[in-house]
Write a structure and sequence with these properties.
The chain has 347 residues and is an alpha/beta fold. The protein has two domains: 214 residues, no CATH class; 118 residues, no CATH class. Helix content is 42%, strand content 23%. Strand 8, helix 10 and strand 9 form a beta-alpha-beta unit. It is elongated. 33% of the residues are buried. The N terminus and C terminus are likely disordered.
Length: 347
Amino acid sequence: MISARSPRESAKRVYHRAKLLRHFETESLTRAITLGPAGCVRVSRCAWEAHWQILSRTANCKLTALLAAFETSWRAYIRSGFCSALVRDYCFRYHALLEALLRQYLAEPTRAHTPAPIQEALSFECLPIMGGTQPEEMVAAGTTSLRNPCYLLARLANPAAMDNCQFLPAITAGMAKRTRLFRNYRRHKLSADTDISVLLYEGTDPMKTFPVLNTLQRQFAQRDDPWAHERSQRLAKQVLLPYVLETIRTQGSAQDQRLVQVELLDIGGGSGTLVSGICHQLGEGIRRAGKTPSFRLWMADVSPGDPARFFRTASRRHLVDSVMCSSYAVANSTAADLACLQGELLW
């Protein structure tokens, strides 16, 4: 699956990937990633002391010692280049501190809200993603595969497994009263010669989350959807193609039925890579059955890209009758509602 990008766009992605990679390899914490005008990505950092400032002021002797031991382990782990031999101690030191904070909290007679020190611990190595209509609004979150101690702990039992957000299905990000919960969305590897992956997490409001995440991914991700090829193969070969071939078989082999027309509505279509791969797989299967495929596509997304660019190659352009791209702003729209949207006919 090949999509052409302008040299300027490709260079921008390489630059942002290098900036993020350089930042994640240093002894500093990420305060936030802010998506500015025209897709400008700004990474704000903070020192260790700035992140743990509330706990440092209020901690007793035991918590102070645990925090100091955790800092030593964190710095040693990063300076080693994320040595796997240090992962176990790094995870242990973090969770020893978290357990002590929770025990102290549970021992209190009145527990009106989660105290700030626990929020500092839970949001450690989790970065808020700002953007949307208000520049300082936290709409999504992220973390990294080699720095987050909760993610690393989940992988200790199976260190050879591929990075996946499902090892850490939810994270909390933000500080003090602004802490929020986010659920797993997508993983992007920053470079072929490093093991660091950025894990993105979506918020509860898709109208605010996905426009920002889609724009952010276009600024640094090597591919818009890292698993689009594998997902399109599975959907086409195991779900859609058997249904289409069975329809062809039941309709007979009359000469006037050689053209097989397939219409697809892709809700949350994003960049169009997934439906492009599905059309490619279906087209090959239909041709092997002695028929001629023809596709009509509707793409609906809160922030649609340019899906038509994936169908302009010589091998696919002649298969597609039309591509309709629509933008919707209702979170719980039904398929019937989306099918009736007035969109932009790309050809």
